[in-house]
Amino acid sequence: MRSQTSISQNATPKRSNKRRVFSGIQPSGDVQLGNYLGAMKGWAARQAEKENFFCIVDLHALTVPQAPDELHNQTRSLAAMLLAIGIDPHLSTLFIQSHVAAHAEVCWILNCMTPIGWLERMTQYKDKSSSQESVVTGLLDYPVLMAGDILLYDTDEVPVGDDQRQHVELARDIAQRFNHLYGETFVVPEPFIAEVGARIMGFNDPALKMSKSYSHIRGHAVRLLDEPEEIERTIKRAVTDSGNEIRFSNDPERAGVNNLLVIYKVVTGKEATAVEADFADAGGYGELKSRVAEVVIDELSPIRARYAELMADVTELDRLLARGAERAAAVSEPKAEEIKRKVGLVLPVS
Ligand code: AQP
Q: Are 148 and 110 in contact (CB under 8 A)?
């Protein structure tokens, strides 16, 4: 039997009759519980049913200031984390965005046909730019790079958290515009967003999405590498309300308790009624928090252990990423050539 941490990639994949999935994650900080429950856990769970490309989008991470050493370390660490949560290189192609030149090249071509107004109305751009004195061009352009990532692979489905829904919609708009201008070229991708867990909220402020960028703020997030005591402390400190009813709710006043129940539901895989039944005899929010902390700790402990094993052999990790990049390039480079040809660029004679 293959060990769970075995990390070899197969030869170049052929397009199978499975639906093709592409998704990415930025090495922009410590991976937090929202990234895991809203996206990564589902990637791993469904990978056998799909043909998968999972990308560490390091070029996207550059759209906000990053210390070079940290970006470098976080990129490799994120690769180990994706394997540790269960991404299987025999079922999925795992690679680093900047290792496949077609991503940046195609972004430029798509930039030249994307109206700037489409980008200015993106809510993530508005949120991230509002706190900055000087906004870099890359931050505005982030969704075009993402559209290129997705479209290069003739992707059918893009599994993401709710915050990325608008960007996937934009990728669809860009695909349709290109197809209209230059003839059928791109598959128009569908977002795949979980019904529950697609927007995990911060423990310190249940009105704010949990984010890697805020994970340094005390009490905001559980990070996947946090020790059990730290996880327990963070969840026990979670903001709730002055009531005592432990039920799912859309009431913004009860968002803290709802968030804890959502986390419990996604981690345990139970139905909503079973979740509420589990807490029918709970003494109050203190007990809710303890039990949520318990299931989160149980979920993350084996991931932390596998991560440590994988990080002990970075040479093997780098080899795996190199093979992933080769497989990704085998699919995306012919597509990039098709795009260049369609817009009228002269291809070099080989
Ligand atoms: N709070 C969340 N709940 C559910 N899903 C989430 N995702 C992010 N936060 C939550 C999903 O995680 C995947 C990877 O995210 P990303 O690295 O592409 O960037 P992001 O969406 O901007 O996530 P962060 O954590 O907020 O990163 P920073 O702070 O660097 O911007 C995506 O599918 C995302 O939807």
A: yes
* Both structure tokens of 314: 């970075």
Any residues with CB less than 8 A from the CB of 307 and at least 6 apart, and which?
A: 80, 81, 84, 224, 225
- CA 93–ligand 1 middle distance (angstroms): 20
User: What three-state secondary structure class fits 25?
Assistant: strand
- Yes or no: say if 94 and 324 are a contact pair by the CB < 8 Å rule: yes
Can you name the residues that pair with 22 across neighbouring β-strands? 53
Ligand 1 pocket (Cβ < 6 Å) reads: 24-26, 28-29, 32, 34-35, 38-39, 160-161, 163-164, 198-200, 209-213
Residues in the chain: 350
Which domains, ranges and CATH numbers included, belong to the chain? 20-193+314-343 (3.40.50.620), 212-306 (1.10.240.10)
Catalytic machinery residues: 128, 209, 212
Q: Along the 350 residues of the chain, how does pLDDT read in single tens digits?
A: 334 444 555 444 568 899 999 999 999 999 999 999 999 999 999 999 999 999 999 999 999 999 999 999 999 999 999 999 999 999 999 999 999 999 999 999 999 999 999 999 999 999 999 988 899 999 999 999 999 999 999 999 999 999 999 999 999 999 999 999 999 999 999 999 999 999 999 999 999 999 999 999 999 999 999 999 999 999 999 999 999 999 999 999 999 999 999 999 999 999 999 999 999 999 899 999 999 999 999 999 999 999 999 999 999 999 999 999 999 999 999 999 999 999 999 999 87
Strands annotated E in the chain: 20-25, 51-56, 92-96, 157-159, 190-192
| Nearest Cα to Cα of residue 35 among 167, 147, 200 | 200
**Which atom of ligand 1 approaches the CA of 163 most closely?**
35
CA dihedral 148, 149, 153, 155 (to 10 degrees): -90
Q: Are 118 and 173 in contact (CB under 8 A)?
A: yes
Distance 280 CA to ligand 1 centre (A): 32
277 CA → ligand 1 middle, Å: 30
**H or E, element range at 269:** none
